[in-house]
């Protein structure tokens, strides 16, 4: 792929294998933020008057990228805010299926509200495990991450379509924080009823912005709950009193959501197909070479479908060695987590392998 070091200057100094923890700031995003604050500086409330038009553009940009009607896109500061808001509108007597050791923002939000909960194991037989628990427990909702944050195990989208076909009443709520921005995705054609994501990772949009996508029928599902936050909408909100308005109380941040649109514009400039192909090619090579070294868990090695996130065996000594050699990664679970984005290269992988 093309050289992205100019767009992401940090790549000039480090081998950055840590997008699963935090995406990078691009030159485009820095330029937008400088212009934004200058316009605010000299415009004051005149600048503020243009905010609603900006938010409409952001919703459209998100909807276009992920295959969702803009009027069913909610702008939230992060996944956790949107997901907790969603759960407040769901009848707490419902039974929810979770994945054991899924991201705490998913599991804890459900467990802390008194829902009846059942669990499926995350291993090489993930899809079979889910199908078995759904058949046995008959949950009303399945809440899960599309890609697991610790080891990168990715759920099969074709399995989700079959699961939905066999269980049409089962609602699927997905966290796409470790997924959105890595490949082309059509929400409307997917099995999901709700998809939420924070945008500071694979979308490289900076902090303080995220989104939720909804299928049309979710308006009835959520509004049936005891959910009154929509009454907090301001008089100038474009979605005052609407379903989407329930997820956007108060004022939205023009800097952060403008950053989200700028990040999506860069993705469109690069091309989501090129991004997807680059990530998959590098992830395939990385999985093969890391498997040869025997540093991956069997649950990852034995699965055909995987993301570009890997957790390798390694202690603090190895982690510090990698950091000393300017390889940025994270300690997660019992090992060291590595993540490869479209701006990474096989040279980055070879540098890693050399240190291992």
From TrEMBL:
Molecular function as annotated in GO: transaminase activity
Aminotransferase class V domain mapped to chain residues: 56-351
Keywords, in A-Z order: Aminotransferase, Pyridoxal phosphate, Transferase
The keyword Transferase is assigned to this record: yes
Matches recorded under SUPFAM superfamilies: PLP-dependent transferases
InterPro entries per the UniProt record, alphabetical: Aminotrans_V_dom, PyrdxlP-dep_Trfase, PyrdxlP-dep_Trfase_major, PyrdxlP-dep_Trfase_small
PANTHER family membership: BLR3095 PROTEIN (PTHR43586:SF15), CYSTEINE DESULFURASE (PTHR43586)
Protein's name according to its UniProt entry: Aminotransferase class V-fold PLP-dependent enzyme
Organism the protein comes from: Salinimicrobium profundisediminis
């Amino acid at each position: 792929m093309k050289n992205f070091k100019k767009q992401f200057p940090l790549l000039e100094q480090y081998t950055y294998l840590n997008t699963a923890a935090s995406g990078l700031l691009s030159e485009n995003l820095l330029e937008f933020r400088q212009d934004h604050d200058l316009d605010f500086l000299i415009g004051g409330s005149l600048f503020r008057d243009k905010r609603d038009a900006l938010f409409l553009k952001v919703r459209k940009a998100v909807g276009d990228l992920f295959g969702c009607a803009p009027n069913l896109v909610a702008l939230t500061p992060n996944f956790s805010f949107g997901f907790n808001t969603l759960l407040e509108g769901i009848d707490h007597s419902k039974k929810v299926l979770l994945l054991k050791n899924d991201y705490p923002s998913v599991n804890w939000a459900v467990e802390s509200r008194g829902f009846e909960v059942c669990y499926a194991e995350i291993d090489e037989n993930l899809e079979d495990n889910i199908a078995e628990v759904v058949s046995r427990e008959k949950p009303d909702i399945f809440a899960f991450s599309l890609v697991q944050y610790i080891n990168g195990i990715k759920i099969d989208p074709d399995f989700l379509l079959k699961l939905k076909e066999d269980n049409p009443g089962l609602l699927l709520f997905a966290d796409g924080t470790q997924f959105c921005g890595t490949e082309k995705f059509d929400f409307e054609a997917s099995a999901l009823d709700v998809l939420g994501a924070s945008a500071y990772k694979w979308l490289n949009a900076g902090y303080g912005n995220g989104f939720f996508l909804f299928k049309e029928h979710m308006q009835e599902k959520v509004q049936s709950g005891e959910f009154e936050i929509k009454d907090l909408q301001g008089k100038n909100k474009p979605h005052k009193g609407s379903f989407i308005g329930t997820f956007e109380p108060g004022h939205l941040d023009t800097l952060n959501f403008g950053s989200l649109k700028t990040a999506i514009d860069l993705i469109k400039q690069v091309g989501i197909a090129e991004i997807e192909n680059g990530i998959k090619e590098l992830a395939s090579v990385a999985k093969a070479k890391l498997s040869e070294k025997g540093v991956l868990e069997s649950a990852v090695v034995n699965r055909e479908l995987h993301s570009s996130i890997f957790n390798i065996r390694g202690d603090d000594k190895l982690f510090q060695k990698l950091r000393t050699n300017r390889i940025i990664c994270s300690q997660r679970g019992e090992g060291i987590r590595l993540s490869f984005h479209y701006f990474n290269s096989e040279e980055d992988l070879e540098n890693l392998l050399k240190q291992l």
